[in-house]
Amino acid sequence: MKTMIASALCLGLLLASGRAFAAKPSAKACAVSDVAKLKEHLEKHVTYPAKGKTIKEACKKEMPDEFPKSEKTCIAKKLKNSVEYKSADEVLKALGVE
Questions:
Q1: Among 80, 69, 81, 74, which residue's Cα sits nearest to residue 97?
Q2: Residue 36: which domain range?
Q3: What does R_g of the chain's alpha carbons equal in angstroms?
Q4: Which helix (H) or strand (E) holds 93?
Q5: CA distances from 94 to 10, 21, 83, 97 (A)
Q6: Is residue 31, in this structure, part of any structural domain at all?
Q7: Backbone angles phi, psi at 69, to 5 degrees
Q8: d(CA 5, CA 50)
Q9: What DSSP assignment string belongs to 23-88?
Q10: How many structural domains comprise the chain?
Q11: Per residue in 33-82, pLDDT tens?
Q12: Residue 85 covered by a domain
């Protein structure tokens, strides 16, 4: 009985710690210095639905110097060319930005 209780406790702790690690978006998220600016850009300069490739091209064409190189690099890696995004919110979710 003690073994069963200890096993259940260990399993509970493992599940809880797994959720804590899964909840951390920092490793997967793009570090964006101005989220409001990014959201505004995505809402004004992109017509949805749009594929990742189209969104990247719009960013380069409309506002090429709007974001630092590190942010543009992360965004380019996160947005998949062939994936169709239905809204700016969907793009932000793909970037891990909220």
A1: 74
A2: 26-95
A3: 19
A4: helix 88-95
A5: 33, 18, 10, 8
A6: yes
A7: -55, -40
A8: 52
A9: T--TTTS---S-HHHHHHHHHHH-PSSEEHHHHHHHHHHH-TTSS-HHHHHHHHHHS-TTPEE-SH
A10: 1
A11: 889 988 998 998 899 999 999 998 887 777 677 788 888 899 899 999 99
A12: yes
Instruction: Decide if 30 is inside a domain.
Output: yes
Tokens of 88: 């700016």
Whether residue 3 is contained in a domain is answered as no
Specify the pTM. Answer: 0.67
**CA dist., res. 75 & res. 26, Å (int):** 14
Buried b (16+ CB within 10 A) or exposed e, 7-40: eeeeeeeeeeeeeeeeeeeeeeebebeeeeebbe
The amino acid occupying position 51 is K
